[in-house]
Design brief:
Distance between the termini: 32 Å
CATH architecture: Up-down Bundle
Strand content: 5-15%
Strand order of the largest sheet: 1-2-3-4
CATH superfamily: Outer membrane efflux proteins (OEP)
Number of strands: 4
Radius of gyration: 37 Å
Number of domains: 1
CATH topology: Outer membrane efflux proteins (OEP)
Structural class: alpha+beta
């Protein structure tokens, strides 16, 4: 499956039921990525953080609370104040009247924080999809390595039997048989190593969706096909639109929103209360009103504004640093990707056919006694090493393609 489609899946989220996976059915890349996106703990954490920020934004965007208070004066005392006959009871109802657009500034800040977290969650989904794809590629490569190792064991055993026949016929010396037996043991050890490497790769892939043990036996994948990558200039043109760059832009918007909140706080609020006072001595009620306003709001706001300005400068500098680093990283991975393709094509077109011809030629000569066992063993070893190298280069190409696509993944527009 094309990685671009997987990144779209990561951005859009999984739709419908996620296949559970059965051990009898090979696992496909689409299913692996969908399961990781649905169950990866990091994404669960990002989603929970988004819910928390939305709740905070809604809370901070609410208007000031109404306050109800009561005073009881002269409830007890001496002389004329004794007995509660001179008691005064006051019930007040009030709230702060916000000035300077404070509530609108808080609402804008809440929206900016939600957008920022959405972009961070989006970047996390792309990372999970890319990491799962990379792990899937490793399982495919390890499956092919195991197949090569098993083939090498079969060929080593066939060669040993052939040598044993020649030794029994006194055509070859005894030490050739011993060397062939050692080659069989070495091939078996290589197969055992390939088996536990595959087991580890399967376990790592299953961990992408929080499984303690793999619930699949094998995966379906083809490393032979090398998808064509877009020109570097096209990929580099997408760098300003990546989730990482967008996250910095939204961080700057969040800081700017905090600055607007600080600017609004420079204008003090007015606290107004209205109430009724009961005077027991006169058996009357009276309307009371109070107005208050804090002092020093402008100087306090100035510090918050200076802090926001400095944070904006730091955010801009970090965004510029990321832009240059991302461009360099993309260029480096792109060059490695092209080299991996060149290596694969050279192996498949120029080297492997010659190695196969060399094995066939050497085997024919060995059968008629023109070549020794060591010549045949060396030709077979060279062929298997080139086949293993082909798997390594193809896996490296696909892995680098994942990284290139991840670096140039385009973020979607986040909405609160």
């Amino acid at each position: 499956m094309n990685l671009r489609c997987l990144l779209v899946l990561a951005l859009a989220g999984t739709c419908g039921a996620v296949p559970s996976g059965r051990a009898a059915e090979p696992l496909r890349l689409e299913e692996a990525v969908a399961r990781a996106l649905a169950a990866n703990p990091l994404l669960v954490a990002e989603a929970a953080e988004l819910r928390a920020i939305r709740a905070r934004a809604q809370r901070e965007g609410m208007p000031p609370q109404y306050v109800v208070s009561g005073d009881f004066d002269n409830v007890a005392g001496t002389g004329t104040l004794s007995g509660g006959e001179s008691a005064e009871a006051t019930l007040r109802f009030g709230r702060a009247i916000e000035l300077g657009g404070k509530r609108a500034a808080r609402q804008a800040l809440g929206n900016a924080e939600v957008n920022q977290q959405q972009t961070l969650a989006e970047a996390a989904r792309i990372d999970v999809a890319s990491r799962t794809t990379t792990r899937f590629i490793e399982v495919v490569a390890d499956q092919q390595r195991l197949e090569l190792a098993e083939e090498q064991v079969r060929q080593a055993e066939a060669t040993r039997q052939e040598i044993a026949t020649w030794v029994a016929a006194a055509r070859d010396p005894e030490f050739h048989l011993r060397a062939a037996e050692i080659a069989v043991v070495e091939a078996e050890l290589a197969r055992e190593h390939a088996e536990h490497e595959l087991a580890s790769a399967r376990m790592t892939l299953a961990a992408s969706w929080s499984a303690l043990n793999p619930d699949f036996e094998s995966v379906i994948g083809d490393l032979q096909e090398l998808p064509v990558v877009e020109p570097f200039e096209t990929l580099a043109a997408r760098l300003p639109m990546t989730p990482e760059q967008r996250a910095f832009l939204l961080e700057a918007e969040t800081i700017a929103a905090r600055r607007r909140v600080a600017t609004a706080s420079a204008k003090p609020d007015i606290f107004v209360t209205l109430g009724v006072r009961r005077l027991e001595a006169l058996n009357d009620q009276g309307l009371v009103m109070s107005v208050s306003m804090p002092l020093g709001s402008r100087s306090r706001a100035a510090y918050s504004i200076s802090e926001a300005d400095a944070q904006l400068d730091a955010s801009d500098a970090r965004r510029d640093a990321l832009r240059f680093e991302s461009h360099q990283a993309l260029f480096e991975k792109y060059q490695e990707l092209n080299h991996a393709r060149t290596e694969v094509e050279s192996l498949r077109i120029r080297m492997l056919p010659k190695a196969e011809q060399a094995v066939a030629f050497t085997r024919d000569g060995f059968k008629v006694g023109r070549f020794s066992f060591y010549s045949l063993a060396q030709a077979q070893k060279t062929l298997f090493e080139l086949r293993e190298r082909d798997v390594e280069a193809a896996a490296r190409y696909h892995t680098l393609l994942v990284e290139v696509e991840r670096l140039a993944a385009v973020a979607t527009e986040a909405t609160p």
